[in-house]
Amino acid sequence: MDTPTADSPGEPDISHVNPASGETWFGHPRQLARLFTTEMWERFGFYGMRALLTLYLADHFLFSDQTTTGLYGGFTALVYLTPLVGGLIADRYLGAKRSIKFGALVMSLGYFVLCFGGQTATPFAKVDGQRYEITVKGSGETRHQFVNIDNRSLLIKGNDDKTVSLLGADGKEVRRVEGKDFEAGGDRNPFYTALMLVALSLITVGNGFFKPNISTIVGSLYAQGDRRRDAGFTIFYMGINLGSLFSQLLCPFLAVAVGWWAGFLLAAIGMLFSYSLIQFDGGKLKGYGEPPVSTGPDRSKLIYIGALLAIPVIWFLFTNLMNAPHAGSGSGIVGYLLALPIMAKALFFTFIIAVIGIPIWSSRVGSRQEFQMMLAAIVLIVFNVTFWTLFEQAGSSLTLFADRNTDLSIFGWFSISAGQTQFFNAFFIVALAPVFSVLWTAMARRGIEPTIPVKFGIALIGVGLGFLFLVWGTQFVGPDYKVGIWWLAGLYLIHSIAELCISPVGLSMITKLSIARVVGMMMGVWFLSISVAQYFAGMVAQVASVETVGGQVTNAKVSLDTYAGTFWTIGLFAAGIGVFLLIVSPLIRKWMHGVK
Question: Is-above-0.70 flag for pTM?
Fold first, then answer.
């Protein structure tokens, strides 16, 4: 592979002396400790916000399940799309360190803006096209919704056949409404809705500058062929989950105990800690992530202004996503594609251009070996889409499942909130990451470490088995149609094992297979694949949408059956794709030319 030199204009300077001979941190370059902590605090902020976002949209703004999961999927898709641009800008102009600092400040501002959500939306219902007020009484398990019709307060009760019964004070049915004729909604303050979208836009832009570039610096700590690289990325990945572990407990706790604003404020504080670790590094990262050598004018201010001007563009994309019409019945694939929001069109076409264009480009500028290595990376990136589409149900459909169809009691001692269930994944990653780091190193010494394609295949099978495990648990529900929390914890355990087989390995794979001068862009393409997966994840979650009134389901059995059916289908699909990848892994391994 081509090795960039310090006097190569327009390329990042990653020509360091191998740090293996210097100070180490648990056998790794000393700089890994600071990058580990920086990423830990950044993920503290992001995952703390993410633990709240779906419930915030559903319970505070009273969006329908389709709007909630669609907006969540669109947001997380853009969060992973912008690194494609951020990585390229860092490679060519800013350098990784300046990009990270700018991104951290913008993200922190976004979390802070989320603190201002205004009053909770006012619920209403349309019955046979006529609008009526909704009154919510009680809380928790005793919370009920009443529709006010002709000066009568009628209890809303969903039925197993998806019709809706309106019950009088004596519990008798006064009226039964077909599901298609009962539509619930909420009156939202337009200003606070727009402000929420501005906050999501800020987070999206900031993440684009932060996310790809810190991973690139981690990769630059290791010389080509250094077998510690995979273990180093696994340790780095543990830092990600150490931050998310605490934030996914604390931010939801504050949201319930104090208010939504308190949870988002804590996320903003964590993000500022991340910024300070790079801004005030005491020279510990000198020589890493520096701007490329260039004789041209400094474009940094122009880039910062351009990034801020992108915020209203992203706000428009969110608005377009929320208001996009559905494809008409019988319109076919062409009608479906035309009806897609602008964001979806941009995602899909950008991804298609990347997976086709990059191999073509690499065949022209690189050797045959470099072309095949880049092709192997692109193929694995495509499989990566399937994994993250299903894994990222955690922030949407699985969170709503926890809220609606999970008994959140811990041994009967206390209960946690639905948002806090996402901490299981982070806990298992923190507990298992050191084990996997030692495991990969030990297996590598013995020459029996699974290849990267095999690890990807195992991950896909694992994410499928996690969903099938949860579906198994739905057979043991009680009359409240809620599974025990340990079935959900079991899913997260299986998914965490699968995640450790693909995510840190994937980041390392990109730095090892990419042509050196485009490693930042390829890291962006890696996150682009996750971006496409996030949008698909929102679409999958929409399939699991159930009817809600005032943020609560109208029938727990219908809700459980809907989730179980969706999880069963995607579980079988993922396991099948994983088996296929295991079958074709020898061919991909050949293209990798000894990269492990």
Answer: yes
